[in-house]
Amino acid sequence: MCDLRRPAAGGMMDLAYVCEWEKWSKSTHCPSVPLACAWSCRNLIAFTMDLRSDDQDLTRMIHILDTEHPWDLHSIPSDHREAITCLEWDQSGSRLLSADADGQIKCWSMADHLANSWESSVGSLVEGDPIVALSWLHNGVKLALHVEKVRGSSFN
């Protein structure tokens, strides 16, 4: 169940959405793993969940939920080997970074600009180091710095 609240007048929170989907048996859902979650500027919510198959294989899933169509949940097998520790959207809301406890980072992109189709073509590995936070470095603003003016007040 997904319970999303938004601020209302007077500082109280109004219920915006309640999403329910079929419940998995306790043998397939692994609730002991912390949930990673991120909300994009396109009102897409990404969250993680680990699922265990009948033969005890663990699949680390990333789910994408469009808050304008909360009944459509899109699930992506992430191929992360360890628990996903963080998710981070880019500024446009069309790319998503995922990282795990073993140092694997993946960049997910919308295929054909569709929120229900994702692909990961770029990734990196910081072997053995758990990733605890992610951030996009480039926000679209270009800065020009002059090395000789490092001591100037505008550089600070």
From TrEMBL:
It holds the Pfam family WD40. WD repeats lie at residues 77-110. Its main location: nucleus. GO terms for cellular component: mediator complex; nucleoplasm. The keyword Hydrolase does not apply. It is found in: Nucleus. Keywords: Activator, Nucleus, Repeat, Transcription, Transcription regulation, WD repeat. The keyword Transcription regulation applies. GO terms for biological process: positive regulation of DNA-templated transcription; transcription by RNA polymerase II. Belongs to the Mediator complex subunit 16 family. Component of the Mediator complex, which is composed of MED1, MED4, MED6, MED7, MED8, MED9, MED10, MED11, MED12, MED13, MED13L, MED14, MED15, MED16, MED17, MED18, MED19, MED20, MED21, MED22, MED23, MED24, MED25, MED26, MED27, MED29, MED30, MED31, CCNC, CDK8 and CDC2L6/CDK11. The MED12, MED13, CCNC and CDK8 subunits form a distinct module termed the CDK8 module. Mediator containing the CDK8 module is less active than Mediator lacking this module in supporting transcriptional activation. Component of the Mediator complex, a coactivator involved in the regulated transcription of nearly all RNA polymerase II-dependent genes. Mediator functions as a bridge to convey information from gene-specific regulatory proteins to the basal RNA polymerase II transcription machinery. Mediator is recruited to promoters by direct interactions with regulatory proteins and serves as a scaffold for the assembly of a functional preinitiation complex with RNA polymerase II and the general transcription factors. This is Mediator of RNA polymerase II transcription subunit 16. It comes from Macaca nemestrina (Pig-tailed macaque). The lineage of its organism: Eukaryota, Metazoa, Chordata, Craniata, Vertebrata.
